[in-house]
């Protein structure tokens, strides 16, 4: 739990808003709501070990991830997964199919800055996920 | 220096790009460059004690600050200054004249997410700044 306690932007509550598009237990702390004037939403997302998003695409916009604690993965389709740690950042361009989440043994938190709409796709299979971690 | 060492997104280099619009020594670590597809730039800005921006306005856009370490101030014109610490965030709407910076005795770092263009105005006077800290 040390990684959660060190999570400066707060873990918030169980991620019921998007939980159906994730595997495993995640938490979400919404910080800034997207509006007509503030055109990107900002949240802090915390993944318990092995939790991850489904594959998804950002349409008519983009997403930036700023890793605040723990260890995780980011993968774009047809590319190798990248391991992430606190201080790393990722820029996700419009139309790129990808997923992100915790490693098998670590909690993981990132700020997400999201513009546009998210198109949610299939889960990352246990087989594909486990192959990353071994 | 402990606050700088704990600064997870890195202090980067001396803020020569915007130094003329700041009072005191600041550092800037650009993380994401604004472009035609990624419509907000992201940087980590670190202020040495008592360093601060000039008064300024964001036009045709907005700015979000995410405080990552230290203690600082945020003030909008005609309003009292707010004290900031790690984990706090600020949303700055288009057209709002404001400044941000460190307290007198603390280093201060925030992520800035900036869309649109910045209109730089006069420095925060030493008198106004010192009145906040005493």
TrEMBL record, chains A, B:
InterPro entries this protein is in?
Cupin_2, HNL-like_cupin, RmlC-like_jellyroll, RmlC_Cupin_sf
Listed Pfam families = Cupin_2
Q: Which positions fall inside the Cupin type-2 domain?
A: 46-105
Q: Which residues form a coiled coil?
A: none
The superkingdom listed in its UniProt entry is Bacteria
Q: Which PANTHER family match?
A: BLL4564 PROTEIN, RIBD C-TERMINAL DOMAIN CONTAINING PROTEIN
Name of this chain's protein: Cupin type-2 domain-containing protein
Per the UniProt record, the source organism is: Secundilactobacillus paracollinoides
